[in-house]
Amino acid sequence: MSNQQADVLQATVLVDIGVVLVAGALLLRVCRWARQPVVIGEILAGIALGPSLLGLLPGHLTTHLFPIAGRPYLAAIAQVGLLLFMFVLGWEIEPRHLGRAKRSVGLVTLGSMTLPFLLGLGSAAVIYHEHDTVDGHHVSFGVLGVFIGISMAVTAFPVLARILADHGIGTTRIGTLVLASAAVGDVLAWCLLAVIVGVTTSSGLGQFATTAGGAAVYAVVLALVVRPLLHAAVTRVLRRRGSTERAALYTAGLVAAGIFISSYATTRIGIHPVFGAFAFGLVMPREPRRELEQYVLRPFQGTSRMLMPVYFVVTGLAVDIGGLHGRDWADLALLVTAACVGKVVGAGVPARRIGLSRRESLGVGVLMNVRGLTELIILNIGLSLHVLDDRLFTVMVLVALLTTGLAGPLLPVLLPAAATPERGLPGPAPDEADQADEADGRGELSRTR
User: Distance (Å, rounded) from C-alpha 443 to C-alpha 289?
Assistant: First the structure.
């Protein structure tokens, strides 16, 4: 490739980013009108710019707008946004919140993950023979089943937090219950997924043992070495530089370097780089909170929000709704049914047991059914590892889109205007375990994102 061709290609990628941002902004207005979270508009924009819509028009517009040679550049830009997003996600799921989770949170988390996971395995058994070969490579039922099970079991913590805030129920009993349950579930799901990725990428038992051992050592190093060193470094920079622009630059630069190095380390170990960014967010110091939120959290959130639409377009380029045939639509109906039943029953029954009304319990199930971006990340990992073929990937993206979109129209019916931050939700008095947690953690869970 000549220098002139390289310049034209780079300019095309810049135009692509502009088109992506404009498309996302236009669909954002539609989402606000339909009371849908921002991620719905971003996913739809990514799908619309891919072969599912723009690619259907004459002139091969998708290929011209997103040339094959330029897609690695887009993927690299999207990866930066994804790693920053995973870091912020890990940071917002504070370990002390997990330790103070109420007994009711444990019940809802267990139910909302176990039943969807089992239904995901059952669904995988039904569709397995249609998707057991990807790019000429055989995929074992265990790997495919666990990937589908995990994608069914997750709840999109950041999307859920935004939905709760938009509906004014973030600080109610139900809001804190589902937010804490989603936080615990996300950590468990990412840990399980890391194991499955290690199994998938290992060529044998010996290599898997090496990967598992390396991951365990890395987790210990992060917790016992990196965390205290990072806390000391951040504290020293802020103490010496004070509330200045230079302090912000040094702190953000230090943390960003840590994110990318951690992601590189997990890649070398044999697991996906997103786990490195997520783990670095978990061990990131939270104090001094005001300075770190100002210098790190808010800038990184803004950057990831700017770059994540590119990630959705990279995802949308692999989604081809027009390529689905009759059996695929039946698979979609099966998987959407399993996803909804798994979450509504799995989370709703424990919610009913702890004293919520039938309508409120259904509301908990609908909220825990929000998968959004979290499922898309898992699906992209499965696609990159050749666990999912293009058709099943498209079907699962639609599952994520549909289950997330259900929350908007259903919540006003299930959790009406009485569920406000000021009034809260009715329910029985907490049990002894809940009362013990209440003394320590009432404010903690309500402040999670």
Answer: 16
Does residue 154 contact residue 374 with C-beta atoms inside 8 Å? yes
First to last CA, the chain: 46
Measured CA distances, 232 to 63, 251, 339 (Å):
49, 12, 44
- What does DSSP assign to residue 203? S
Q: Is the Cα dihedral 130, 136, 141, 144 positive or negative?
A: negative
The 3-state DSSP class for residue 369 equals coil
Q: Residue 133's beta-bridge partner residues?
A: 138
Three-class SS of residue 229? helix
Q: Which amino acid is at 435?
A: Q
pLDDT-flagged residues of the chain (< 70): 1, 94-102, 170-171, 202-208, 240-243, 417-449
Nearest to 350 by CA among 183, 114, 104: 104
Diameter of the chain measured on Cα atoms: 72
Report the distance separating Cα 212 and Cα 194, nearest Å. 9
Q: What is the 3-state secondary structure (H, E, C) of 382-444?
A: HHHCCCCCHHHHHHHHHHHHHHHHCHHHHHHHHCCCCCCCCCCCCCCCCCHHHHHHHHHHHHH
Nearest to 148 by CA among 108, 118, 179: 118
Predicted confidence at residue 39, as pLDDT, reads 80
Q: What is the DSSP string of 132-185?
A: SEETTEE--HHHHHHHHHHHHH---HHHHHHHHHHTT-TTSHHHHHHHHHHHHH
Three-class SS state of 445 = helix
